[in-house]
Amino acid sequence: MVLGGGGFIGHHLVNKLKEEGYWVRAADIKKPAYEDSKADDFCLGDLSEQSFCLNVIDRDFDEVYQLAADMGGAGYIFTGENDASVMYNSASINLNVLEFCRIKNNNNIFYSSSACVYNEFNQLDPNNPNCEESSAYPANPDSEYGWEKLFSERIYLAYNRNYNMTNKVARYHNIFGPLGAWNNGKEKSPAALCRKVAQAPNGGSIEIWGDGEQTRSFLYVDECLEGTTKLLRSNLSGPYNIGSEEMISINDFVDLISDIAGKTIKKIHIDGPLGVRGRNSNNKLIKDELGWAPSQSLKIGIEKTYKWIEEKVMKGEIDIK
Ligand code: NAD
């Protein structure tokens, strides 16, 4: 079962589980945007509604992945305009999913939390952010999206304690790849920057939010799914970071994408929603306890992503919602 199977990561996860030979049910309020789902059964509806959620979780599944959330990039979660709906929608989904899974004896759910749970004060220095799992407390996420994730992490783990469940919690750090939002207001920086570079002529310029010295790390979707399935199939609960430790400033990231595109691109820094000053995954705990860490360089994943977005730009597909 892949809840959120119409979304970017969920769609890739459905593909992976199909390749592994599973019968897959996916549920989402929308179908995948860029290709058909390979799910054997795709349930279209709102998981924040109890009746729909109960219909979807109608049995004991081998594996349940809960990825459905009201989310987007900085332009969606840091402007403040979507705070109430983000919190209401995602919390309702998680409450419904957990309770109906418990009733139907699905006691091993994977829950995708986020690096956005981390305390803003530990991420002020772009060169030295602290995202060790334990540093999430005392809590001070910089967005309501992060607060909802923290609440939901806690309830998945509370169900473990009180109902003998073995739910797993991972904190994803900036997952990217082809088949993700790239031009609908919900795109994240890797897709947005690839699009801007693809649209710019050689020697042209692109706009970047902030001074570009803010740092992040980015994980390619295939590696994210490797960590995800490995964690669900383990006897560990987490929370664990699933991310890359290859930290890069946004300015250097633009240069990397420009190199891949074979273009010289000038950067124009403008005001925009930014998020924390620095963020990098810390993989010590997941390496030590699960024996997993990503191995691929950022460049390899970005080459594939750039190619996919460049093709869309070339075809003039500029208005996908
Ligand atoms: P996404 O937005 O592409 O996927 C989320 C899916 O949830 C969407 O398809 C959306 O339609 C669905 N959804 C939202 N509300 C729903 C509702 N009421 N009923 C049914 N479906 C609903 O995002 P993604 O990048 O694939 O992220 C998957 C999960 O991973 C999310 O929980 C997200 O918070 C988490 N996460 C992602 C990243 C990242 O970098 N992509 C980072 C941290 C955490």
Total DSSP helices? 10
Bin the helical content: 25-40%
Radius of gyration: 19 Å
Estimate the strand proportion: 5-15%
In terms of quaternary structure, what is this? Answer: single chain
Distance between the termini: 25 Å
Proper CATH architecture of the largest domain: 3-Layer(aba) Sandwich
Which fold name is given in CATH as the topology of the largest domain?
A: Rossmann fold
CATH superfamily of the largest domain: NAD(P)-binding Rossmann-like Domain
CATH class of the largest domain: Alpha Beta
Ions, cofactors, ligands: which are bound? nicotinamide-adenine-dinucleotide
Structural class: alpha/beta
Number of strands: 13
Placed side by side, the strands forming the largest sheet appear as 3-2-1-4-5-6-11
Write the element-wise H/E pattern from the N-terminal end onward.
Answer: EHEEHEHHEHEEHEEEHEEHEHH
Number of domains: 2
Please describe the biggest sheet, giving its number of strands, its sense, and whether it closes into a barrel: 7 strands, parallel
What does the secondary structure layout of this molecule look like, with pairings?
Layout: E1 2-3, H1 8-19, E2 25-28, E3 41-44, H2 50-56, E4 64-66, H3 74-77, H4 83-103, E5 109-114, H5 144-163, E6 168-172, E7 175-176, H6 189-199, E8 205-209, E9 215-216, E10 219-220, H7 221-232, E11 240-242, E12 248-249, H8 250-261, E13 266-270, H9 284-290, H10 298-314
Helix pairs in contact: 4-5, 6-8, 6-10, 8-10
